[in-house]
Amino acid sequence: MNEAQLEIEERLERMKELLNAENMPDFRDEFLALHSYEQGQVYLGLTKEERQKTYHYLSPNELGDMFEVIEEDEESVEEYLREMNPNYAADMLGAMYADNAVDILKQLNKHQVKVYLDLMPEENASEIKELLHYEDETAGSIMTTEFVSIVANQTVRSAMAILKSKAPEAETIYYIYVVDSEEVLVGVISLRDLIINEDDQLIADLMSEHPVAVKVTDDQNDVAKTIRDYDFLAVPVVDEVDHLLGIITVDDIIDVIDDEATSDYSGLAGVDVEETTENPFIAASKRLPWLITLLFLGMSTASLISRYEVMVSDASILAVFISLITGTAGNAGTQSLAVAVRKLATQDDSNTNFGKMIFSEIMTGLVTGLVTGITIFVVVGIWKHNFILGFVIGMAMLCAITVANLAGSLIPILMDRLGFDPAVASGPFITTLSDLTSVLIYFNIAALFMSYFVGQ
Amino acid sequence: MNEAQLEIEERLERMKELLNAENMPDFRDEFLALHSYEQGQVYLGLTKEERQKTYHYLSPNELGDMFEVIEEDEESVEEYLREMNPNYAADMLGAMYADNAVDILKQLNKHQVKVYLDLMPEENASEIKELLHYEDETAGSIMTTEFVSIVANQTVRSAMAILKSKAPEAETIYYIYVVDSEEVLVGVISLRDLIINEDDQLIADLMSEHPVAVKVTDDQNDVAKTIRDYDFLAVPVVDEVDHLLGIITVDDIIDVIDDEATSDYSGLAGVDVEETTENPFIAASKRLPWLITLLFLGMSTASLISRYEVMVSDASILAVFISLITGTAGNAGTQSLAVAVRKLATQDDSNTNFGKMIFSEIMTGLVTGLVTGITIFVVVGIWKHNFILGFVIGMAMLCAITVANLAGSLIPILMDRLGFDPAVASGPFITTLSDLTSVLIYFNIAALFMSYFVGQ
Description:
The structure is a homodimer.
Chain A: H1 3-20, H2 24-32, H3 36-44, H4 48-57, H5 60-67, H6 74-83, H7 86-95, H8 98-105, H9 110-119, H10 122-133, H11 139-142, E1 149-150, H12 156-166, E2 175-179, E3 185-190, H13 191-196, H14 203-206, E4 208-209, E5 214-215, H15 220-230, E6 234-238, E7 244-249, H16 250-269, H17 280-307, H18 309-314, H19 317-320, H20 322-346, H21 354-383, H22 387-417, H23 427-448, H24 450-453
Parallel strand pairs in A: 1-2, 5-6
Antiparallel strand pairs in A: 2-3, 3-4, 6-7
């Protein structure tokens, strides 16, 4: 255990002691001196009885600060809320930034959500209800409505005064958004600019006009791209006619980027890598659906080989190279798939020439296939003293790799066009599919040369 | 082409026109009104001749603002700098935030770096030289030295005055770091706190003590984890005895998270997915090393099967199931690999019980293997009217999957312990390796039952 780990453990022990000694003043002093993330580490380490005490020792507001930062799975969050007095839970949710409260409410069922919304102050409830409307993974679903907006026709001094009054609630005060009388976004000014400039300068003269904004219906990945490209700390969210609806802050975008990376990685491996369980039955139950599906796809390959059993019986040497050809083509297909998925994710759809992408992937397949095919032609020719066999294996390799590359790029493109996430097309799926095509190619080429192998 | 794309194209055309008409005043007006990211989009779209004009129309300072944001590959950056007058380039690098200047200089050779550092004002050069020392991928290599630090024994008013004077150079002014007379980090206060509190309050009373900091030698991924967990906009960097050396801002951390995700994804696929070329020869040259290496690993599988050729010749039915067993075990191994790599990446080393991790993976392999094995026992038994064959295939599947799961978790763990990045262990490598073990298992089990198959 390293230093940091030790510190976390010690802190947890200390807090447990204070709770069990029912020493509320010291617990409050020490707990509230921690950063909300560290408070979360403590909270998640408590037993149910210990947590109950925190609900008495801490105000809903104080616990809410911690819940802004906690990232927990569905079951736990539901359990925590159920432990609390419903009024306490509703107050806590109401005190949180609306976007974070929404993140938590989305993990509950409709009935529970209604209970908490009913118990909450009307103002908070209506803010949250609005946000709950937006479709998952859109800008609207991750934005918050707690931002600072001002009008252009005022001085730096008066803007600072507004900022000062709004700072306690706003999720960020580092960008101030400028709107007209209709709430249309017309500019943005950073707090840095407010501080650098003189008190009696006009906001209208200092603000950046035509600020970069995202639409409320935009995909959260596009929002992430904007924040990343522009190095923003936050981006404003507008509707179709540029009314300012909310903002999205960089900390939420980091979560989006993380989730996206994890889901791409999971997709490629054909397994949810967020699997944290150590229970082999639960782990297996999450991996089996893909494995069994692919087992049946693999069965079609087996039944295909079964049709060529007479050939194998006549020339058993053919069996030696089945796994080499299917394996290599599968590897090439996986490479091609990963490149295609990444291209689809990073390029703008409108800017992608799918035909060109597929053509380039086939050409790459031909080149890799040619090099691999010639290599295996020489190796097999020398090893088995049979260059005709080498030619058959090399030729099969060339064709199988080209087809695997085609499949590796075509399948994610098709999924993308049909509106599915191309990252779901997994490596295991491509390798299993390419087993089938590779075997078909291999035995058809071998059939042409059977007279040379029989009896080998 | 969508709206945003069109806007970018139109803007580029307009800027090209102004440059070619040698209309410096309008070019400056319009170019400088853009966000630096948009300036970068324009700059990267210009021809060499057009770029030359920008070096005359824009000051090194103005072009530097744009270069803070541009992300380009080695060759291009080198080319751009070589196009500029060396004095101009040195001034531009000197005007940039030190961390971004270092990012660019790291892409040049030593001689070029020396030329620019010699031409630069001493103060900038020494800052940059210090940063260039730090090892790649450490906190030191991505931090910047342009931060705001103050002493505790002063009022909010005087701190704001310091902030105002330092704001133009500092990379962020949203956190102000508090140091003692020895430059040891003792606290942090956010600009939000400065603004909310009264002008004559003391910094010492308002600041958070024991601020979270990272060590200058920490891995950049650990820094990313800190910023993400705590939802920070920046984190201070200290040496072994807590001297404040620099800060790392969230925009640089987003790049780290992105790069890490891309390299994990590339690792799993066994290909560099940042491949943007459409030249099939270049693409193939990047994919072939892995493919050919694995081809030779696959050759050992082939030569292993070759030893059992007599068995295949006697019972050709055995050949039918080779690809099903190797394929399914490979899929299971890939899942296991991805889960292990992710666990290693997210867990603290000191906290990971490797033995437990491997044991849990073997158990998961046994459960998935059992389910898959029983399924295939039934399917093959019915299909081939031969439950002994079904038993052999099922048994081989169970063992092959368990071994593949073991390999999938053991290999990344070994790599991690030996100091390599476990994410380099690719899916293709695991599938090719598990082909070998699966074939060995399959034929050894089949050998025990040969008398039942001969002549089938």
